[in-house]
Amino acid sequence: MDKFSAWEERRAEDLTNCNEIMGNLVITMLSVLSVAVVVLASGLCCGAVATPDAIPDADADPLLAAHSPYYAYYRSSPIHTPNHTDQTPTCAHNTTKSWCLEDTDYPHTEIRHALHQHYHGIQILHTDTILTTENSVQGVETQEEEAYLCPSETTYVQPLRAVSTEGRWRVIVNNVEVYGENLTQSARIEECLGAPGDSCPLVPPCYQTQCVQKFVYHRFLVFDPYDFIFPFAVETFKLPSSCSCFMAPSL
């Protein structure tokens, strides 16, 4: 009985030591987990209020801008408040045209940063929308050689905003530099100078004529600041292309 009692006593002591070791191990694991949670929470908190001075200068290194999450999400806000693309922009308040060639609210910085992040994705889109700005009249080498029956004005434009065929104002990617390349999109437009319905001045008045504005559809690469996955797309825009003389059929 003495040997059995000693064995029972040693067994009880071993179980006590084992329980103590397991308890200490559990406490240690919980402490480590608590520290990890505190560190993670502190990092998220500090990241949300990070200042631009604490962020690497990605403007000097385009590759950093393309691969740094801190630069993408914690960069300082732009100095302007961008309008929603469905709203009429400020540049269109004092004009009847469906496009803007100047825009004080143009999100140049946001577009440049997004182009750095999605450069390979937009290369195909931009190549698909490149338009030639050469004279579209076949066989004519200079604009002065063209003959028009209606007065018109021809210009080559690089719009910053325009109304799409869906009736929405869109931001068009234009004159934005990315990796040393200046991305531009141009279009040739021709607008009638006279009032709608004016007769063709070079046609004898015995004929019933009128000047008619013609349009053509262009495809532009646009930027959507509210699409956080891929903020670029190709949309269609209707722009004036020529001023034609329409002659009514004789009776």
Order of helices and strands: HHHEHHEEEEEEEE
State the strand order across the main sheet. 1-3-4-8-9
Provide the CATH architecture of the largest domain. Ribbon
- Tell the overall outline: rod-shaped
**What Rg do the Cα atoms give?**
34 Å
For the record, give the distance between the C-alpha atoms at the N and C termini, rounded to a whole number: 135 Å
* Poorly predicted tracts of residues: 46-59, 61-83, 131-143
And the CATH topology of the largest domain? Answer: Cystine Knot Cytokines, subunit B
Helix percent reads 25-40%
Content of β-strand: 15-25%
Q: What is the arithmetic mean of pLDDT?
A: 74
Q: Report the count of strand segments.
A: 9
Class of the largest domain, according to the CATH hierarchy? Mainly Beta
Number of helices: 5
Total domain modules: 2
CATH fourth-tier homologous superfamily of the largest domain: Cystine-knot cytokines
Fold topology:
Blueprint: H1 2-48, H2 62-67, H3 69-73, E1 99-100, H4 108-117, H5 119-129, E2 152-157, E3 161-163, E4 169-172, E5 176-178, E6 181-183, E7 187-192, E8 209-223, E9 232-247
Antiparallel strand pairs: 1-3, 2-7, 3-4, 4-8, 5-6, 8-9
Structure description:
- Residues about 45-60, about 60-85 and about 130-145 have low confidence and may be disordered.
- The chain has two domains: about 1-50; about 85-245, Cystine-knot cytokines (Cystine Knot Cytokines, subunit B).
- A five-stranded antiparallel sheet has the order 1-3-4-8-9.
- The relative contact order is 0.12.
- A hairpin with an 8-residue loop joins strand 8 (about 210-225) and strand 9.
- About 30% of the residues lie in helices and about 25% in strands.
- By secondary structure, it is of the alpha+beta class.
- It contains five helices and nine strands.
- The protein is rod-shaped, with a radius of gyration of 34 Å.
